[in-house]
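Notes from the 1:1 (GR / supervisor)

We went over the backlog. Supervisor wanted to see one worked example end to end before approving the batch request, so GR pasted a single chain during the call. The sequence is below; no edits were made to it. Supervisor asked that the structure be written out right there so they could see what the output format looks like.
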Amino acid sequence: MKKKLLLSISALFTSMYLFAQITVSNTQTATQLVQNVLMGFGVTASNISVNGVPFSANNVYPNITYFNAGTTSFPIQSGVLLTTGNGSGAKGPNSSPSFTANTPATPSVATDPHLNAIIPGTTPLPTNGVVLEFDFVPAGDTISFKYMFGSDEYPEFANSSFNDAFGFFLWGPGISGPYVLAGYPAGGQTLAVIPGTTTPVTINTVNPTQNPTYYTNNQSGAAYGSAIQYDGTTVLLSANASVQCGQTYHIKLAISNVGDQSYDSGVFLEAGSFSSAAVDVAVATVSGDTTIVEGCTFADFIFTRPAGQTNDTLIINYTIGGVAQQGVDYNNLVNP
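Structure output shown during the call:
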């Protein structure tokens, strides 16, 4: 009897797992999605824009949306979704090998020089998509975020001229590369590359025959059950760059159809993953704020390191200011 009960419970959870779908909502503005969803530890963002239009990020767009994987098997639990068509078209199940949800996917960028630069040879220009840009200041010496690219052009249009494109283009101090942007004479680089190479991730570079290690087949829901519509995706990847602490950088997150406006594609950006490897400093006092005053009470200075650095030795040097004298007004503090 116990065996039958356990088997029934297992079947119930398996059924829920297979038929669950991601949810997609466009109730938040582009600014809210960047500031409240994408941004993580050690990074502050500003000057957010959509398709290069000032103040446009204060609007809600159907192709810059929030997604949540819920109880599905999709590898990213929640985050920001950028799509060539309507973001709702990314929801499962995988019911069509050629799904397109362009209406009302506005705004739409007609063409983009940086996306065009990563499309090889003489293939057609980008035709419709979206560009999300912002400045950011890192508190550490690296920045990273996690993402997955998916498309209904997989697998039949792999290695063809219909090569939907996306890129994460970065400009700023210490960054150089082939992507030209006014105000950045050294050029920029794209962070969406095949690990260990400088090759951009596209449908033509990651598919069943090209770099298949980084490709996941989802035809008929093979990988994710009913979670998403796309026939194929990349595996979960990480975009990374070395930066200078406290300096201002500019990043451009862009995606577009190529050659036509059919067969949707999307980039899933993991919530809270846009972060910098930095040490966070906080002050805790008896009064509950960060003000330290003379008296027989305690204050704690709390240095918090990123979780990914817990296996490394970290030495912190810090500067103390103010009129209070160390060793007279308060106990000696170890530095570093």
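Supervisor's comment: Confidence is low (pLDDT under 50) at residues 1-16, 121-126.
Batch request approved.
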